């Protein structure tokens, strides 16, 4: 059966091999039939080896001088025609009298050849008349008697009998006189094939036995799966949540429950442990265990795969005679060898493509599936949900996408598969496995695997109850459940990463094509292309491994840490840290986990995690029943893994407080924020850009085109089918250049290097070209558009002006700090959370730092006992003790402190924050009527307005305030006034915003500041014009949306706003909205119409920023620029996130700018647009290369010729490779263009360039042959491929047709790179790409010299405009000193007359000019601009 299958495969791969007589002439014209005037070509005098081989039954029958007497020194004539003293055992097939038959008939065994006759000259030579040459040679060399041709051996009746052969007969043999050799076929009884059939048959038998055995063994699992589906699913909630039960201060024994019944806190913990931040879907888990038969099957699969590669290597080596004589495995017949290699190669492609497709499933195929709880391995399947950056509106693209998705789902290529070994914990013997750096433990109650969570409590009192730490036994138990506190990042070695890279499908396709090159005497080009392929793979591997090593250095960390175990402090490794551990915080330590602060005064540098430039002061949680939200109000009490501690100090303990700086571990490993970041980087979701969608369709089109080219090659190349098949494969494979993936990586790498020189660091190369399509750029305000620090501007104080009643009013504005009332100065000196670290650096909120510096006060290094901080007023030598503090909360937009004044012993409460929020806590009778108008007026002028309230609690005991809530302390305060700061614009902000808007990029502000301040900064920065009318949306006290004109302070109807969002306002109007309005519109699902018409989003929380950016992303490619901190979510959410951070390799966003300049956004877009345009140019160049190569091959097929081997090397190794590299070095434009480059491969501009250039090149190539056929010197000297063996492709360039074809195509190859180099909107002008222009000029000069100069060394190396030495000497009086292999055509040269050379050169230059003019006039500038105006593409219309 196997033998029959192999025979069938051989037959199918060699369709057409039944043709007995090969017609080697072109299909549509007769060679050398008519001259240029239409007259029949005269017969010409021919010189050469025209005499056939004379074969005799005895050497004595040879003419005088051509028998043994032709040899000297006692030598004799051997059966192979050579002279030797000892002919030895020369194989019979070497006898030319056998007509190259591998197994000549017995009648030929007695014939021996005479010595070969020298060259002769025959007048009016007719190659079709064999008898003419026989008669001439018989007379010339005195061959007496009748010597017939050696008969048609294919017909039994024509065979000479043995008596004739042995009776002194002579026969003419050789190519003109020999019959066509018989078609050799295998009997398949050869030992070679018996061995192959045995191996393949054995493998098939092993697979059949295994499949049947596996089916029977897995029957119980199939039955169980039909009954119960749940056992194969796992996710974040599949594990258990361990809840610490609390009852006052008593801690009960931990209990284990299902996560579905957990509290809100456990739900959040479960979410935190999801696979990635964007993928919380369940995992499909299957159990497997090894089996002895499976090991045999898997080993046999490996052996067959390796053996098949060795098998192909044997046949390739046999082609070159490395195992003796050439084609020794194929009965010494090269044609049979080629025909054998075809099915072997096809089978190899099918085999390895199948293995590559199911690579991650193969090993488990040879295991027995079982329940996950019983297996020794688990196979985890996670669906990859592609993130679409932009989608095409084309019906064709969408249809192709649906077809692709259907095929992908069919072979389950959209599922990430990984096999993990099952391990057991040493103490509790729990089953677990590690997946994506997370430990999954088997839960006996749910019968599922999942990560364990520990709920340490949700209130301050519950968290503080863990201050005593864990017992050693409990810590060990928890360590087994959650695993070590160590994110182990596996980074493959460079060799392994390289192997994994080239095992991908595209590399597999390329390397399999290269194998054909190696086999069929095309190994020079094969080696060059293989080098390019491997180089591109190496570049990708190096970039990826370096990025992973950077993540590894960030993720993996180990250092000693003091933990409270068994009631004692023990020095352990942070790897042993588990949730519930109490650990000591020390200065200089890297925070090992997500934790809550229980005591002490701690300063943390979070720049490595969030990009926040200044250290942040952290405070312990209070001893109350308040709720703790780690990412909300509790952020000021939380430590995050990956940050570093700048300072940790003990404080004087008051009742219920903890003096020592300690923390409570909440999450470790990948359940921390840092762990989630690491997971997102190491296991990202696939991203689909419109470029990627259309690229798939283009590949589909090219594959279809390749099939057409394959068919044309088989039809036009009128030679043996095996040779036609190889040529057809070469042609179709070159349509998809092996340089394509390398060129895209090359362009991105060059852009990344240029960005780095501008202090913009990139950790995600594909995002560079996405930056080229950014349509909306969103900005944070403070520290991004404006300077980092604020400047004190003045104060506006309020006082009671009534005598018998309260009537509060504002005093005049005071612009000096010392001019403010004492109460306001005291509030400024104390109502903050500023701390001073070693070296005198102040840390805290930038507003607080500026405010405190303005007071010129100092913070005592040794606070008064019982005080949190002590502020010293130098001028008055007064020490103000801060005895209680509520830190700033985003949700309340306020903070408050209680201060003891030693002068009167009173405790004063100061509350400071947003004037809108503070008003809610003030005694309403102390609020002037013009409170909001005054605050809004200052905010409208760009002021950062803080309201200050005050309460005098009198001389009370501080302990009475111990359990006061924030409301207890703040409510009922009296207004002190406003303290105003100015947040000044960065000097370069207006210029950068103007550049972005000139580049058709909409700019939007998303800020946590007030709306009026945001509007002022937007106007000052140029986000909106100074004269623009601004409608501000907010909610009233009833929760209803209303709009006001911020300048006139008049309410605007919803109808007027509707005109704005419908684009019918009729005047320059902008929208702004507060966070309340934003959330309200989201809640009622009406936010979408407002998104692209709103310029300022104010009072936005960090989560609001993320949602706002995601809403913009539904309409456009969005960039976001922030300075870290509360911008973290937005930087990670946007298509293009740029963090203004000094960290060289920030993991916050794909890009980080070290110079903290807003101009980095402009530079990023310039480089992104340039990289996108350059990538497309390189892509287009390689497509044009494939098209030009296709035309060259099709014309060569038609004429049965080709270019010389050196010409192919010149094209593939020098022109294509170096031109592609130089195209990538096109420098970016100096400024942003009004338009963005296209991201549509099938868009009008790309198609215009491609189709126009292809059509022009084809027209000129066809025109060149039309010109050639009009030349008298060419007609009747046409190439006749029937006179040589055309399977030897390197012999087919010695003719006029190949010369013209090669020279025209060389000019086209060179000029294609110049065509795609044009375009100055996104890149510098064409002549500024100096490497490309230089290389183009050199290549044009070289090709011109080959064409125009007289025969020379360079042209002869290319077999162009050259000839045999004797012909050049006789006909052109040229005597080359260098070696020239004799030409194999009738004229002996392909030198074109001088005037015709210049005509051909002019045609080639005209071709170059025509394609350049098409690109410049039609594809890029006048015609394209006119078409863009007349028929614009449907693009996103936004107000800039």
- Total helical segments: 43
Structural class: alpha+beta
The percentage helix is 40-55%
Question: In total, how many beta strands?
Answer: 54
Residue runs with pLDDT of under 50 for 5 or more positions: 1-24, 152-157, 235-239, 245-281
Please state roughly what percent of the residues sit in beta strands, choosing from under 5%, 5-15%, 15-25%, 25-35%, 35-45% or over 45%. 15-25%
Q: Termini, distance in Å?
A: 72 Å
Look at the structure and give the mean pLDDT: 81
Major sheet strand order:
33-54-53-52-34-46-51-50-47-48-49
In a few lines, what is going on in this structure?
By secondary structure, the chain is α+β, with helices and mostly antiparallel strands. It has 43 helices and 54 strands.
Question: Could you walk me through the main structural features you see in this protein, from its secondary elements to its overall organization?
Answer:
40% of the residues lie in helices and 17% in strands. The strands form 14 sheets. The chain has an 11-stranded mixed sheet, sandwiched between helices. The longest helix has 41 residues. The chain is elongated.
What topology emerges from the helices and strands here?
Layout: H1 2-13, E1 44-48, E2 53-56, E3 76-77, E4 83-84, E5 112-113, E6 120-125, H2 130-140, H3 162-166, E7 170-173, H4 191-217, H5 219-227, E8 233-234, E9 240-243, E10 246-247, E11 250-251, E12 255-258, H6 264-272, E13 283-289, H7 292-319, H8 334-357, H9 359-365, E14 368-370, E15 377-383, E16 387-388, H10 395-410, E17 415-421, E18 423-424, E19 431-435, E20 438-443, E21 448-450, E22 453-455, H11 460-464, H12 472-482, H13 494-502, H14 505-519, H15 523-555, E23 560-565, E24 568-573, E25 582-584, E26 594-599, E27 601-605, H16 607-610, E28 616-618, E29 638-639, E30 644-649, E31 662-667, H17 673-682, E32 687-688, H18 690-716, H19 721-733, H20 740-757, E33 760-762, H21 766-771, E34 776-779, H22 781-785, E35 791-800, E36 808-810, H23 822-830, E37 835-836, E38 842-843, H24 846-855, E39 858-859, E40 869-873, E41 878-889, E42 894-900, E43 907-914, H25 915-921, H26 931-940, E44 943-952, H27 966-970, E45 974-982, H28 989-998, E46 1002-1006, H29 1011-1021, E47 1029-1035, E48 1041-1045, E49 1050-1052, H30 1054-1061, E50 1069-1074, ...
Parallel strand pairs: 9-22, 16-32, 34-46, 34-52, 46-51, 47-50, 50-51, 52-53, 53-54
Antiparallel strand pairs: 1-6, 2-5, 2-7, 3-4, 8-13, 9-12, 10-11, 13-14, 13-15, 15-17, 18-19, 19-20, 20-21, 23-24, 25-31, 26-29, 26-31, 27-28, 27-30, 33-54, 35-36, 35-45, 37-38, 39-40, 40-41, 41-42, 42-43, 43-44, 44-45, 47-48, 48-49
Helix pairs in contact: 1-8, 4-7, 7-8, 8-14, 8-19, 13-15, 14-15, 14-19, 15-20, 15-36, 18-19, 18-35, 19-35, 20-35, 23-24, 26-29, 35-36, 35-37, 35-38, 36-38, 36-39, 37-38, 37-42, 38-39, 38-42, 42-43
